[in-house]
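Q: What would this chain look like folded?
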Amino acid sequence: MSQKPPVDIRMLLESPEIQRATSQYSEPAMGRRAYQPPICKAFQGVYSKISPIETFRFDINPESRSQLPDIIDQKVQAVTIEQNPDDAFVRTYTRRRRIGIVFSGGPAPGGHNVIAGLYDAAKRANPANRIFGFLVGPDGIIENEYVELNDQIVDGYRNLGGFTMIKTGRTKIDTPKKMALAKETLLALKLDALVVVGGDDSNTNAAFLSQELFNEMQIIGVPKTIDGDIQVRDADANVLCAMSFGFHSAARAFALAISNLSNDSSSDIKYWHFCRVMGRVASHLALEVALQTHANITLIGEDLADYVDRQRLEKSKAQGTIDYTAYGMTLRHLSRVICNAIVSRAAVGKNYGIAVIPEGILEFINEIEVFIIKLNTIIAHYNTTHDKDFHTSFPRLDEKLDYLGHLVNDTPPGLAPNIWNSRDDELFNDLPAFFQEGLLTERDSHGNFQFSQVPTEKVLLDLVKDYLKILRDQGRYKVGIQKDWYAKVLKKAGLAPEHYGPILFRNFGKSEFLLVKETIISLRTLKNALIQAGAIGADDRIPAAIEKIYNASVPKFKTQSHFYGYDGRGTDPTMFDCTYTYNLGLTTFSLIANGATGLMAAIRNLEHGFARWEPIGIPIAPLMRLEERMGRLSLVLEKSIVDINSPAFQIVKAFREKWLAASPSEDQFRRPGPICLHSDNEEDRPITLLINSIGQGYDPPSMG
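A: My prediction, written as C-alpha cells:
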C-alpha cells in the first residue's frame, strides 16, 4: 500500500486560513473587541457636569460620621451633559490628569470595559491624560507595581471577560502600615485620582482611602460583584443602584450550563442534577438562574430565614409545651422539602430533575448559622489571645475537634461561658466529617466563613438520600407507571390489566400514572399481595410481566453534583454588562473631572432599560454599617440580600409548582441561549430587574 508524502508543515504554518483558525483571537472575540457599546445621553456631548440631588437622604451610622468626617455629608451627584460650559469649566475639565485604576476581589464580567470607558473619556478630554493600572489588585498599590495603559493594551480587551488586563487580588489596605505604603505609592506617582473597582469590602477601602487622602487625591469606587449584593437604596427606599456589574453575565453563564443539564436530564431521564451557584450570602444569582432556566427546584436562602414549622408548633402546643426548634429552618427539614419534591415528580414518572442551591444557603439555616457564629468567635479569640493561627496550631480535624471538646468544661477567659456546650459538641460530632472540616475551614481575609469551600449540595444530598431510603422502605417513594405502558406489557404477556390493576396499584383507574401500593415494597410483599388476591398460588412464581412492572416502579435515585462559580466570573460579558460597565467608566471620569471624591460611580434606572439610564455618583460613607469581622465590629459597605417581598421573588414563588412539573404534562424548562452581543433577541437586562420594574408599575422601554 502506497503511503502519502509527508505533510509540509512549513507551508501549513504559513497558510492564512490556518493562521486565522489557530489565532489566539477567534472571530467572535475579534467581533467583541470591535463592538462599541451605546452611551448615555449625559456623555453624548463634549463635556459632562455633576450637580447634587437634594431629594435623596441616608440614615448615617454614628461610627461612619466619626471615622469618615470629611466625606460623610456628601450628596448624590447627577451626571448630565454640559452644553454651555464657560472657560473656567473647560480649563478644569480638560486639564492634564494622572489617574490610577485597580481591580480588587474576584473577577466579574465587564471589568475591562470600566477601564475602556475611563480611558476613552480621559483621552477625549485631553490626549495627554495618563491612565495607570495597578497590577494584581491592591498589592500593586502597596508594592508600587503598575503599567501605563495605552491604545494597544486597552483595545485588546474591550468587551472581553476576566480582569486579565491588569489582574486582580484580594489584599485589603486595612492597616496603618498598608495605608502608609499605599499613600507613598500614590503620591510618588503624582496621581490626581484613583479608581477602585470592587465589591463591598473594596468600596469600603475606597471610602477610607478617600478620607485619608481627602486633601491630596480623589478616590472613586465602582460597584463590582457577580453576587449582586451591592444594591443601593436611600433611606426612603429609592433605588440608586439596582445591581452591581457582572451579575447578569455570570447568571447567564450559569443558566446556560444548567439549561444544558436540563436537556440532558430530560433525555436520559435518570439523573437528578444538584447545582450549587455562587453567592456567599445573598441568593440573587439563584433567583435569576431560576427565572432563566425554570429549574424544578430552586432554594432561596432568604426565604428560609423566618421559617416557622407550624405543624411542630401545633403538636407541642397540644402537649402543653413550646418547641423552640420549630423556629428557624433546620437542615433536616430542608432535606425533607427537597425529598417531597423528588417523590412528587417520581409519582408521575419523572425520577429526574434539576435543583439549584445557592452557595450561601447555610447562612440561613438556623442551626448552622449558630455554629458559624460560635466557631468564628472561638477561632478569632484563639488567634488574638495566643497570637497564633488556629488552623496552623490544629492542622488536623481531630485536633480541632479535641480543642472544641475541651471548651465544654473549660472556657478560656474572654469567651462567653458555655459558648461551646455539650449539646453543641454532640450535634457537631454528628455532622459528616467533610462538613465538620468545611465549617472549621480557614476564614477568608475578612474573617468570613468561606461557603465556596463547603460542598453544600453534598451536605443536603446525604440527608436527602437517607430520608428517601426511609420513604422507599415505607412504600411512599415510587416511580409512577404510565397506564398505557402497563396495559401493553400485561396484554403482551396474555394477562388482564383490569384484573391485576386493583391488586398492584393504589390509584388504579384514577390517574394516568399508576402508583404501586405502599404495602408492596419488595418482591416478597408483591408475591404476598398476589397470593392474598387469589391471582397466583403459594407455589407459583410471580408472572414475569408483573415483576417487570414492579421493578420499573422501584426508584433508583441517581445524582450528579455541580458547582457554578469561577466559570461565570470569567465569562464574556452580556450586552447589558458591556454597556453598563462602559458607561460606568465614562461616569467615573466625569466625577473625577468635576472634582468629586468618596463617591461610587453608578447608573440609576438600570431596571427600566437603557433609554432611562442616568449616571450618578453615590456617596459611599453613608452606606456603611458596623459588621463583625475577625471577631470585632468594623465599618463595611452594607450587603443587599434578596427581598422576599420583591416582584421577582414573588413571581418565582408563584411558579414553583408549575416549574416543579410534578404532573403528567411536559417539563417547563427554559433555554436562555448563549451570551452574544450582535442579536436583536438578546435580553437587555436581568429578568430579575425586568420583573421588578414591571412590578413597580412602569412600562419599561428596551435597550437600543
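The longest helix spans residues 247-268.
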